[in-house]
Structures are given as structure tokens and as C-alpha cells.
Amino acid sequence: MPEGDTIYRSARALHRVLAGHVVTAFDTGLATLARVNDDTPVKGRTIDKVESRGKWLLVYFTGDLILVTHMLMSGSWHIYRTGERWRMPRSKMRAVISTAEWQAVAFNVPIAELHTARSLERSEQVPRLGPDILSGDFTIEAGIKRIANCARETPEAEVGVTLLNQRIIAGLGNVYKSEVAFSARIHPFRAIRTLSRSEIERVVEIAYRYMKANVADGKSDGIVTYTGNRRTTHAMDREERLWVYKREGQECRRCGATVLMRKQGTQARVTFWCPECQPFIT
Ligand SMILES: [Zn+2]
């Protein structure tokens, strides 16, 4: 099953080749798409942007039309140069977006719908997400506002659970959850209502900085939050790159206390923290 970050990468790759280009052809093997396409053709529109929402991938066309696909177990998007041979049989094709240079092909996607902004807003199944921390229009201010709202609406929600909740701020995964809370010196099991204004600011700023830095570097081999002793010249191992994630039982890099781990939230996601650097406050 493709994970959220895989779909995020697919969306980013599709955005790179499609955004700003005119659709020269749109084909589909799905009757529901074909019907909408007959009434409001995709061909001739320009692709505005491609983005992911959790496990959903959304292609925005000009003139208020959005192609929404869900990958479930089997679905995938491929990108081909126009005329290049597909690596999957045509019978598995569900939708093809062609531009002058590229073809984006959705294979085996079990769910594909064409929406307007309004019908998408009303859709029960496509989740509404908070502002995406990696999107160009994300601001620290907006992020702070979202967390502050949470502190009012779900005051008992734990910090770690709140950071992972894609409906509040989209983009943070399970590694970042622990790393951001550590760096902000906030115990991940504290209730969100216990955070001061400056702690909320700190958490959002750090989340933003970490996410930006890791994407900007174009690293494909994992997340780096801890760079340690910069005088060392040898390449760092993965486990030397993080403050607390997967370091339970080891010494805190800041204070030497023992890093702890506990499962958190209804999904029982692992959470790591230092009990000295991140005191529990009620
Ligand atoms: Zn510590």
C-alpha cells in the first residue's frame, strides 16, 4: 500500500511535469469519468497544480475541475514521455492526461472522480486537510493559528497526536513528530491546552524549518535533524542523524538522560522523547 509520503512524492513528480501545461488529450477507462469529461472536457484546460491529501492525489485544472484519485492497494501514477512505451498493460489504464511532452497515466486506481471545488468540499470521503507545511503559501502565522484553535477545540489532545493530525497541519509524519517535539523541548504527551503561546510558536517554526530543510536538500535517504559534530568528515549513519527517533534506551544527545519510547494515540504510533529535556507539564 502506498504510504502518504509516496503519494506526496508522486504528486510532486506529477506537478513538476504537468503544472502550467495544456492538456492535449484526456482518456479514461472509467464510465463515471467519461461522463463528466463529455460534459466538461478536460482537454484544452491547463493543469494548475497537483497535490496530495493523505492517500488522495488531486490534479487541478483551470476552469474549476479537479481529478481526484485514491491509490488504495493497487493504484499508481506513471509519467511517460509522449510516445514512450508504458510499463503496464493498457487494460489497467484508468485515466491518461497528455500534454505536448508528457503523459501521466493512472493505473488500477480504484477510485477516480472529477470534481468542482464545491463538490469536492462536500465530498465525504476526501479528507479536508490543514495547510500543507511544504506548500508555497504556508505561513508560520497560519500554522500557529491552527494549533491555537486546537488548544481551544480539543484541549486534551496530546501534542504528538496533534502534530500528526493532517487536518490541522498537513505534512508532518511520525519521525518529525518526535523530532519537532524534542527540538521544541515539549513533552509529546502533554495536552495541547498546556502549551504557552511561545511554545506553540516554537513548535510550528521548528516543524517548518525541518520540513523545508529536508525537502530543499533533495535527500532521498531520510530525514536529518541532528548534524552533531560538524568537524567529523565521515558520512553519517542514519541513526546518527536524529535527536530521539528510534533511540529509546540511548543517551539524549543534549543532556545524557535515557531516551524513552511509548505508543501514542488511537493508531498507537511510536513516540520518542527525553524526560529531562521535555518535562511533563499538566
Ligand atoms: Zn535530554
Would you kindly provide a written description of the structure presented here, covering whatever features stand out?
The structure is a single chain. With 282 residues, this protein is α+β, with helices and mostly antiparallel strands. The chain contains seven helices and ten strands. The strands form three sheets. A four-stranded antiparallel beta sheet has the order 1-6-7-5. A hairpin with a 3-residue loop joins β6 and β7. α4 packs across α7 and α6 crosses α7. It is elongated, with a radius of gyration of 21 Å. The two termini are 39 Å apart. The chain binds zinc ion. The site of zinc ion (ZN) has 7 residues, from loops. Zinc ion binds next to loops.
